[in-house]
């Protein structure tokens, strides 16, 4: 959808007729680094993708995860384990179709005025929550207001001046400034809808119940073990580009917690797990060489990086941050921590993301691996040592950094490989591998100097806003773990989101990325391959992976996959 298209009134059917989407979706795009469409590859153990049969109805589909959810309140969740489960329970107003355009889903019609300051959404009638409540305009307004009040990603809708029910099934959203990216933002699953009555009747919503409009409904939560959702039999409103409009094929999805990588691998290849996107990247060969399971992979836009605390000495000094960037040799990290399942990046936005800097430009500006330069920068700031590899000191204080990593193996392994690299230039990085609750509590308290992190997006603006916008700092409940606050960056990001002129938006997002490289609040390391391992008996894989950004469309496999 172009910017001009956003200003037109569009119905679901007319939109589909316009772009020509039928059946299970459009064909996959090839590798076009300039277009922003990533390469898509999927192979089974025999070199051809398996799982193409239509699933049968019934059974329990077991999804394996190495990390457990902490809340199932849609508007308070931030992490992938929660979103994996919530993708079955909740739905947003828009979905990303196979042409990578936002397509109205729960809205039958929508329009915007010429300068994109007012949007009107006409809801599909007859859509119900799992408790029988109907999705009305009042429910939408209440949910969006609750999202803005509670979600760490509230910035997506926070610029709105008002959400108003202008009819039983009509919602009007008004902005003071142009907001042309709203339809794109409304594909974010966390902007979806929860039942108002369920929240008001529950003393602990998100812990003992979650009620949405998705194809599966809350069944049970066995703490530390599994979350089970059951098929919502009334569901029949999936987008037309999905081969199954609903309900889902399995009677249940069971999301099991297997914290040990070896256990999860064994459960997938020889045990009870049917599918998982949490298989350690270094174990991909084990899946591909097994008799009972296969793997699909995709070079993707999700970056792995170091978030550097810009508010805590000594990493509040830009040259110390640049030295950290120069000290990290990316390729050994990819090989040792990811088993080669990734590619190096020099900007926090990978070049295959829409509006990402080209690899050439990012490398030209970026802090490439150069131990000598790292040492020079540290010396320049007064951090000295008497022999190579010795921890540097300044005014009697050692250059010791608190280094956190998540227990998910790929992030822990990244930390284990990077810490000694920093030691080689005289930085003593004291690595602590922490479970989720402890990690995020420490990050929100600003106790860290550096931490391994991954938080990406398919568009440059979406990739950097959550992790670097000043108002999204972790100490204020957001996901900016660098605690970076830069007025120039924030203004460039604002222009990239609100300018009515598309070229002006592109120029602003380019300048924003260049400023990130200059100020070094993060150390870009690599973008991961996205993988999904599945038992050979799983059907429907072809339908799901036809979507060019299938790894981020987990909601689709709740409808497409089965046994």
From TrEMBL:
Q: Which residues cross the membrane?
A: none
Q: Which domain of life is it from?
A: Archaea
- Output the Pfam families linked to this UniProt entry: SBP_bac_5
- Region annotation (Disordered) maps to 27-65
Q: Which residues form the signal peptide?
A: none
Where is the Solute-binding protein family domain positioned along the sequence? Answer: 102-460
GO CC, alphabetical = periplasmic space
Q: Which InterPro entries match?
A: Peptide/Ni-bd, SBP_5, SBP_5_dom, TAT_signal
Instruction: Return the protein name.
Output: ABC transporter substrate-binding protein
